[in-house]
Amino acid sequence: MLFTSYEFLIFLFITTVAYYLWKGPRQWLVLLFAGIWFYGRQNPAYLFFLGGTILTVYAGTRGMERLDGRRKRRPLLLAVTGVNLFVLWLLKYTDLLFDGLMIPLGISFYTFQALSYLIDVYRGTEKAEKNIGKVALFAGFFPQLIQGPISRYSDLSKTLFEEHRFSWNEVSLGLQRILWGYFKKLVIADRILAAVQTLLLQPETYRGIYVLAGMVFYAIELYADFTGGIDIVIGIAQILGIRVKENFIRPYFSKSVKEYWTRWHISMGTWFRDYVFYPVSVSKPLLKISKWARKNLGNAIGKRVPVYLSALIVWSATGIWHGRGWNFLAWGIGNCLIILISGELEPLYRRFHKRYPVKDHWLFRTFQILRTIFLMSCLRLFDCYGTVRRTFVMFASIFTDFLPEHFSAGTFLKLGLDLWDYGILMAGVALMITVSLMGRTGSVREKIRKQNGAVRFLIWYGLLIVVLLFGCYGQGYEAVQFIYRRY
Q1: Model-level pTM?
Q2: 463 in a domain, yes or no?
């Protein structure tokens, strides 16, 4: 059941009505039953795997509650974590089990979200929840099941289990956020998808300048698709009075790859930082290696060893999280190397800016932003072309097969888009950029809400008409699931 389908809209309407009619401290049960129906509607077998994660994490946290100290809790932590990661690996990275059965939607998201709660209880920063229904709702909150974000129990539980009264202000703001997500997904992402697929699925034909075009088109599609989906998730939660943290903060305005990853898929980045990087960097094996390196290689190198090894482990795991295949591992290591090399060059950057004070000039900032977008687009080629070898071959073709005849407008009209489509895309991208720029000084929805009624009506009614008229759905189009649903 797609977020963009009529079936989902009906489901959301019924859920919202039932939620606000069922008043009292157990109002959250409506969301639990809705989540079970929603996920089971995708495939009843998915409930088996989600239920297994919930039961093992619940049993593990309740067991930890009876034990004092991390040393006694550690066997339970390792057992529950191991079981869940093994199931994730078995389903997502092998063909040994359940051949022909689709990988459960969002399995990486709900697994990592549940494990974050387990680890927090192990650390003593979170108390074990006695009500298994609440644990089930936390792990299976239906808006987040498809593509996140990966919430923490301490954040989501603040509003997830509270009683909420109907508020037209919250509902209207939520609907506006959902509408904006639909615009990104249906008008932009699903429209440009045709060109992206043409370029990437025929690498023998589309080389040279087409690789650059594919990099640009895929960057637009990925951003519009993923952020559009998160807009819908946050909007649904807001309709229900629930707060879900932002997962994107204008990532394409980042001036470095490191900054980019503090703005893009924030919940994933902080998960790997808090539950992998920090524990690994202070683990006994890493401390021993660091001690040996300081003694034999010098203090300057020795203090970098645990940081670099931890970063390499984290980014390798991040790549594997995105999918199986050497291309995803190469993508992760590529990100790691750029960030580490950039960190090592920081003293050189400081000397450069001291001599040439251009750091705050808008031209230099624009250069930094475009450089970051280019680097990230190059790294995404590993995802686009599927194998490491093909990625390097296609990237090299930018310089070896850059033919003048490819610049003619007619060649780009063979990618599945006509002039009308390109016009809509240009206007849509321009609108996204404008909204992002406006968002630097506060919520755009709040700014619109302060306008008079006629202006508000024209903006939101106009956006609705744009989605209805120019969205890619209906006869002649195939409903397309969100990109990150595969994780």
Answers
A1: 0.91
A2: yes
